[in-house]
Amino acid sequence: MSNEQQQGNNLDSWLDAYAARAETLSVSEVRALFSVVSRPEVVSLAGGMPYVSALPQELLAKAYHDMMAKKGNLAIQYGGGQGDLVLRDQIRELMSLEGIQSSVEDLVITTGSQHGLDLLSGLFLDKHDVVLAEGPSYVGALGIFRHYEADVEHVFTDHDGMSPEALEESIAKVKAEGRKIKFLYLVPNFANPSGVTLSAERRPRILEICKREHILIIEDNPYGLLYFNQPVPDALRAVEADGVVYLGSFSKILAPGFRVGYVLAPPAIRDKMVLAQESALLCPSSFTQMMISEYLANADWKGQIDTFRGVYHERKDAALAAMHEYLPDLHTTRPDGGFYLWITLPEGVDSKAMLPLAVKELVAYTPGTAFYGDGTGHNKLRLCYSYPTPENIKIGIKRLANVINLQTELLETFKGR
Amino acid sequence: MIPKGKAGAKLKIQVLAGGISHERDISLKSGRRVADALTEFGATVIIREPDHNLLANIAKDNPDVIWPVLHGASGEDGALRDILSLTGVPYVGATPAAARLAWDKAIAKILINKGGIQTPPSITLPKETFRELDAESVLHAVAQAFSMPVVVKPARGGSAQGVSIVTKVEDLNRAMIDAYVYCDVVIIEKMIEGTELAVGVIDLGAGPIALPAVEVVPRTGHFAFEERYTAGETDYFVPARLDAKTSEAARKVAISSHEILGLRHLSRIDMIVDQQGVVWFLEANVLPGLTETSLLPMAITASGNSLGQVYYNLAEAAERG
């Protein structure tokens, strides 16, 4: 070997210039595997995609033409940092369906509620601050918290949602460790990934604990209107205005391509959010806001939500029937709304490790570890029934059963349990 | 020396990328890079998925040459190449027969060994083996035969998917499971410590030429998936920091391996040089990665050629037959 010193090339000239938080961003083998879900041969029960084909495109085409005819120049112009006033007023009506009374002044429109959560996290989170969250919790939120270098403390959650007792225990534990809790993040209705809903009985208790402990609640509610049988209990924000920041979204009740969400926040927080939004992107898209505003003004949007409910209800039933037929021994949640089943695998079966086998068998799901910030969740997986047809859901779950059997055999062979 | 092509080239080239293998994502990235380079060089390029419209698209596009940039099964196992042969349209890369030999790492090792090139001692274990034999006793015997560390890898596959370096016997079980989820045949190979090299081979019809060796130094010590596809995770030295004698030995191993396996147009031979300067063959890549972090493009650039020129020359070589 030559002793000659030579500079290697790491293919990134700016490696020494990144902020420390960029360390949280890296490619992953699992992410690469998900590339196959776009192939029609694969039944994807992975991504939480709404079934936008159930939304008649002529409704949107009409909204587009009407909007351009009425205020085309405004739609393609910069808008206000807080969002379109007309749309904010319409959102008030939308939120009233879940018991929320509000002022347009306290609403901020964002580029999807994901962006709202990012803005809030930027306002509140310093490195190693603690975010309390359900266990499991929404993967997209965990990604944001990780990016801001916060630590997530999962709170035990069962079929009635987050346990108030466990919340108190978690708060006591974090405080005893001398760590600082910044907020409680929760998806109270048909949660992603568990599908469970925080019960009416637990809601005031969660509110009371957080008020007593001076912990802000971030209530993320993209699925609340997508119930199957009966409406969900009133939103936490309907009861408590100062201690709750409410995130809403048009992604699931209309279409995610618009990237329009909203945040209802106490005035002081709202002010900072508007400034943060202006700093980040000047304003949310006027064009998509006005499209949605036109749609809400003239289309039967409540009827469309009913249509979505019917579609997802049928698919949930198909998923549960297929689980009963092909995987009767596995525990699954039985949601009354939303998009997801949360499955518990046989002990020792690691859903992340099993994913390549599933891809080979042409079915995809989301491994349970994605929904925990602490590396747990190995024997859990999320199935999303919103996008595939009932027939494909059945095929997908049949394939999944085969995959689990193959993996179980493998584990038994190698005593990998 | 790779002959210079001429800019303003006119071939119509269909690039196949994507597929349904575990390496689909890498294939899409590689395919777009190849298409961009060819377009910049002047070729007319159409990117297509190898899906149920494959044959219809070939008929519709009527390309002069097909450039399959498909990693993993079907792209590298010879099956798709068999189908391309049926169309009569010339294509870049290995023939179906050669692809089958090189794609299966266990078979490739046998052939390479017979050709007089060192390859690490290994054992190949189909999953079915364990229907008859007790896993614990088999792995115990393996552990006795090969002192740790060993490399456990799927016999077919790429991008280090399913590959583990096992340093403790008790971790063998887990590594076997992680490999079997990718492939029903697994190789346990004695790990050779040393300098990890990748040597690209280009053959435009006048015989194979070895490109400058790329030395791979992953920061974690293991050239796994993330180290391969995340810029900044691995240091690459091109040409590799080898003395002249070792460099020549590596070149010879690359050329001989390419020839023994009957590969055509391009390949990448992965090898390791131990402390004594012995070059060990690890595996051959029928269609090596061609992404922005891949090793073959790095070697082509280091050889003083443009990617567009070389990719186009390969298409021309395919067209000549």
Please explain how this structure is put together.
The complex is a heterodimer of chains A (417) and B (321). Chain A has 13 helices and 14 strands. By secondary structure, chain A is of the alpha/beta class. In chain A, the strands form 3 sheets. An 8-stranded mixed β-sheet of chain A has the order 2-9-8-7-6-3-4-5, with helices on both faces. In chain A, β4 and β5 (161-162) form a beta hairpin. With 321 residues, chain B is α+β, with helices and mostly antiparallel strands. Chain B has 3 domains: 12-93, Rossmann fold, CATH 3.40.50.20; 100-118 and 193-320, D-amino Acid Aminotransferase, Chain A, domain 1, CATH 3.30.470; 122-190, ATP-grasp fold, A domain (Dna Ligase, domain 1, 2-Layer Sandwich). In chain B, 38% of the residues lie in helices and 22% in strands. Chain B has helices at 24-41, 54-61, 79-87, 96-103, 105-114, 129-132, 135-145, 172-180, 225-229, 244-260, 295-302, 307-320; strands at 12-17, 44-48, 65-69, 122-126, 150-154, 164-166, 185-190, 195-203, 208-210, 214-218, 234-237, 266-273, 279-285. In chain B, the strands form 3 sheets. In chain B, strands 8, 9, 10, 11, 12 and 13 form a 6-stranded antiparallel β-sheet that branches. A 4-stranded antiparallel β-sheet of chain B has the order 4-7-5-6, covered by helices on one side. Chain B has a 3-stranded parallel β-sheet with strand order 2-1-3, sandwiched between helices. In chain B, a hairpin with a 4-residue loop joins β8 and β9 (208-210). In chain B, α1 (24-41) crosses α12 (307-320). The mean pLDDT of chain B is 92. The chains are: A alpha/beta (417), B alpha+beta (321). At the A-B interface, α1, α12 and α13 of A face α1, α7, α8, α9 and β11 of B.
